């Protein structure tokens, strides 16, 4: 059995692991950086739904290894079966041993499969970040499907539904909550997403609890989804897309502390509780909400990459400018030209947490004048704390600029910006590229109007 030494060993080569490796190689150029992952070809997680429609193949969604190699890191294809914390060794399943100084767990997450009958039938699948698995789905299962049910109406379910219907497959989304995307958006945004999907033929079943997945006469292949109080929904394929759980088997075996939410407990620099030389990043690491410090279950590639940058910079010495202040939760997606995104707390979430809130809204064209070609209306809602006027979150529905507007809101949250800061924000404007007034500035202006209206008694002209 072979043995080798490395200074920094990163177990897992998804967005968190690769970004940790790139950052570590850049900030600690005298250290040897080794990323170990089981797959030679890794896919871009956020691009997986698009394999089945827009991209048209798994090879179009590959995440390159070039940035890691260019930074000075190394990649080893293999799987770690055990880690000896005391000896600072990792044992691969083929028996090889790796000696390390610093260890980073980036083992990702596993799909949650509900405890209902029929999940093991042929034709029932979930989305895995595995090239060979996805390629088999694309080339063998999907071409045979005529009618598919997607259990789960979150981002993965919605994006997959929109992509798979492009292949002339009849698609049904089955969601237990009253609306799709309800965990991420306020209801008016949820309703717009539903209308957009329905306009393309996607059938939506909400308030629907799945009791079982039924087999055909052979007892081996899926034939229907049984929903409580309804007739069975006949289908020939089922995608289960109701969430993931941290993959912490290795961390647990190592004796690392796990949080009550299931991830490896880490501090603001991604260090484990037991050993400052062992870090965890990405989906396998515990996350806290930016505002409340409660467990945050947002498992997205952008958050994982951010944690990778934090860990990579702090492996051998803590750098105060780079620490994890909590998860803001930034999401964006698009259905046939209608983009939708959210950052921070929704109005419903803020009120449920007990924040007295103030909100503002704006609707305006994303080019000026509005007669410019390809102009799309932007809707922006900004949520503020009523006492401090600090921004808590925002939602955007619009066109191609939606993602960057949501990122601007996320930056404002992390900078603890107030409504006054945003109302006086300077921004660039170009007729073919931007609105004449930034949507966040416009929504903030509406919020301040409401704020001052509440402060003054218009019947007397004096303070309320």
Q: Low-confidence spans: pLDDT under 50, at least 5 residues? A: 458-464
User: How many helices?
Assistant: 12
Shape: globular
Strand content: 25-35%
Radius of gyration: 24 Å
Mean pLDDT: 93
Helical content band: 25-40%
Q: N- to C-terminal separation?
A: 79 Å
Major sheet size, sense and barrel closure: 5 strands, parallel
Largest sheet, spatial ordering of strands: 6-3-2-10-21
Task: State the total count of DSSP E strands.
Answer: 28
Secondary-structure-based class equals alpha/beta
Describe this entry's structure for a reader.
With about 475 residues, this protein is an alpha/beta fold. Helix content is about 25%, strand content about 25%. The protein has helices spanning about 15-25, 50, 65-70, 130-140, 155-165, 185-200, 250-255, 300-315, 345-355, 400-415, 420-425, 440-455, and strands spanning about 5, 10, 35, 40-45, 60-65, 75, 80-85, 90, 95-100, 100-105, 110, 125, 145-150, 170-175, 205, 210-215, 220-225, 235, 235-240, 245, 280, 330-335, 340-345, 355-365, 375-385, 390-400, 455, 460-464. The strands form eight sheets. The protein has a five-stranded parallel sheet, with helices on one face. The termini are far apart. Residues about 460-464 have low confidence and may be disordered.
């Amino acid at each position: 059995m072979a043995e080798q030494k490395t200074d920094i060993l990163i177990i897992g080569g998804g967005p968190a692991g690769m970004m940790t490796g790139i950052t570590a190689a850049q900030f600690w150029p005298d250290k040897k950086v080794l990323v170990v992952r089981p797959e030679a070809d890794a896919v871009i997680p956020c691009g997986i739904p698009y394999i089945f429609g827009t991209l048209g193949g798994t090879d179009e969604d590959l995440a390159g290894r070039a940035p890691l190699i260019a930074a000075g890191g190394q990649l080893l294809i293999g799987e770690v079966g055990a880690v000896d914390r005391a000896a600072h060794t990792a044992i691969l399943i083929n028996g090889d041993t790796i000696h390390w100084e610093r260890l980073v767990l980036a083992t990702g997450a596993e799909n949650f499969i509900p405890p209902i009958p029929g999940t093991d039938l042929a034709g029932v699948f979930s989305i895995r970040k595995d090239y060979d698995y996805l390629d088999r789905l694309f080339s063998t299962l999907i071409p045979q499907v005529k009618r598919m049910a997607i259990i789960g109406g979150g981002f993965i379910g919605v994006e997959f539904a929109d992509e798979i219907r492009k292949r002339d497959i009849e698609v049904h989304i089955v969601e237990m909550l009253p609306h799709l995307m309800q965990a991420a958006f306020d209801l008016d945004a949820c309703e717009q997403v539903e209308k957009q999907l329905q306009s393309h033929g996607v059938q939506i079943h909400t308030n629907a609890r799945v009791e079982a997945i039924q087999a055909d006469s052979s007892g081996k292949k899926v034939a229907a989804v049984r929903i409580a109080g309804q007739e069975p929904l006949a289908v020939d394929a089922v995608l289960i897309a109701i969430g993931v759980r941290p993959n912490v088997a290795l961390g647990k075996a190592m004796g690392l502390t796990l949080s009550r939410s299931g991830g490896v407990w880490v501090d603001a620099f991604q260090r484990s509780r037991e050993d400052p030389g062992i870090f965890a990043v990405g989906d396998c690491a515990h996350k806290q909400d930016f505002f409340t410090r409660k467990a945050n279950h947002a498992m997205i590639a952008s958050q994982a990459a951010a944690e990778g940058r934090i860990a990579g910079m702090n492996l051998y010495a803590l750098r105060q400018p780079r620490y994890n202040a909590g998860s803001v939760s930034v999401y964006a997606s698009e259905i046939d030209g209608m983009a939708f995104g959210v950052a921070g707390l929704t109005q419903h979430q803020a009120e449920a947490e007990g924040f007295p809130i103030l909100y503002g809204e704006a609707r305006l064209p994303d080019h000026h004048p509005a007669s410019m070609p390809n102009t799309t209306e932007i809707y922006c809602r900004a949520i503020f704390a009523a006492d401090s006027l600090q921004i808590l979150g925002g939602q955007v529905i619009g066109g191609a600029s939606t993602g960057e507007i949501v990122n601007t809101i996320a930056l404002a949250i992390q900078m603890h910006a107030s409504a006054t800061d945003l109302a006086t924000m300077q921004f660039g404007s170009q007729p073919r590229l931007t609105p004449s007034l930034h949507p966040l500035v416009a929504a903030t202006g509406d919020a301040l109007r409401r704020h001052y209206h509440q402060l003054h008694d218009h019947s007397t002209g004096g303070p309320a």
